[in-house]
Amino acid sequence: MKSLVLFIISSLLFLNPLYSREGRNLLLDKSLVSETDMQFKYHYPAYYALNPVLKADKAWEFNKNGDPYAAPFSGGVWYDELSGKFKMWYSAGGGKTNGLVTCYAESNDGKVWFKPDLDVVPGTNIVDTVEHDCVSVLLDKFEQRTDRKYKMFLVAFNNSGSVSMKLKYSSDGIHWSSTKAVSGELYDRCAVYYDPFIDKYVLSLKTINGVYRRARCFLADKDPELAVSLAHRTFINGEDKFIRFWFNADDDDPRHPLFPDLRPQIYNHEAMPYENLLLGYFSVWQGPENKECVELKVQKRNEILVGWTKDSFNWNRENKKPFLPVDENPEAWNAGNIQSVAGCPIIVGDSLYFYMSGRYNSRPVHPSNFATGLATLRRDGFASFHSDKKECYLKTIPIEVTGPYLFVNAEIKGSLYAELLDANSNVIKGFSKHNFEIVKKKNSTKLQLRWKNEDISSLIGKKISIRFYTKNTDIYSFWFSKTEKGFSGGYTAGGGPLLSPTGIDQ
Fold first, then answer.
1. What backbone torsions phi and psi does residue 456 show, to the nearest 5 degrees?
2. How many helices (H) and strands (E) are present in the chain, helices listed first?
3. d(CA 292, CA 390)
4. What domains does the chain contain, in order, with CATH numbers?
């Protein structure tokens, strides 16, 4: 009975209408598809050829041992539409033995980064000197108070050598307030993000599970100060009134090729709202442990996998291929391990920009040797349904028509037709395949679909299915728009050039 009650409470807490949200409908799996003979395919970002885009080249970016460290360990890379700048908050060595300091950099194009001289520590780009294990910086596009527009969640070292989370605010991302909230004692490598679907700040807390070792707990609240204040260590699968055990690594997560018997673990996790869902980044630890790393002179291996959720709690992690993998070249900037970064992706035209911390493998000293890299992916390009030369079809589940314009993100090397179906799967008059304005040889992340002499506005508020007919085509997403410009009304993650500063595609 207790389990049933908890399930009901959980369901109510995270209840959201699955397909009534505005935003692009990404074809990340088969959940939006009722029938198809098209082939489902995953796609992966390409690392930027000139990586790393930021590395240690200032005296304060080296630790006490002289090891370089200049990368967001979570940190944050965002696009500020008001200033027209890419902004990065990253961790640097700071001349420290154990902890790190927080630095700031900016860019006009997301590829060439500058480290401005600031007045917090004169002559440097340091914005906070608190020694930390990691830090999450949010450019909170949904915050109404200007003095809290930027939020810094520091997993800071205590005098005892343990860590606690500290919350600070800023109006400009450079000058930070005093500490406004402090957690209890935590494990290291915790992260924070804002979830607009439940209007809460989510703390992804590291825990130690008896079987699965490194795992995650969930804590969320509308008030970031209260959320931080409630945070503390939980052991094994223990839960309290506010903190819930969340997830651990799966048996089929990637394993280290040199240590295949080591079971994978979740080293870190964070997420961002993108269109009508949350994208989750899962840093999967593959070993070995620190002691063995020192003895064998190797880095502990982490790679980033991607998942998604529409209920804010239960993640789809079907894709077990690393989204951001390590480089098998031992001399590469990202040969040691990869860590995810808060704020990603950033939408740059038809591309998504993903930033990551990469650790060199040349000098395996654990809290060092980090640089920052960039990878790019087609907008919405996580997965697609693909057809070859033979005509194939895809029929969606019933979708509510929320605007008078229908758009797709598709690469059409051959042709694409579409027709609209009513609740009984009958073709709606005027919206047949034969009345459709055929599209041939078109590659667009925002392509409007039209029927001859018909207006979709007559269908607004109704639930319909779309049946696509394709040859030599990949379909990535589809959506209804209220404007001919194709705005989706979904979330724009870390923002991007020419997008709305509200964080909504409008």
1. -65, -15
2. 3, 30
3. 53
4. 22-43+383-489 (2.60.120), 46-378 (2.115.10.20)
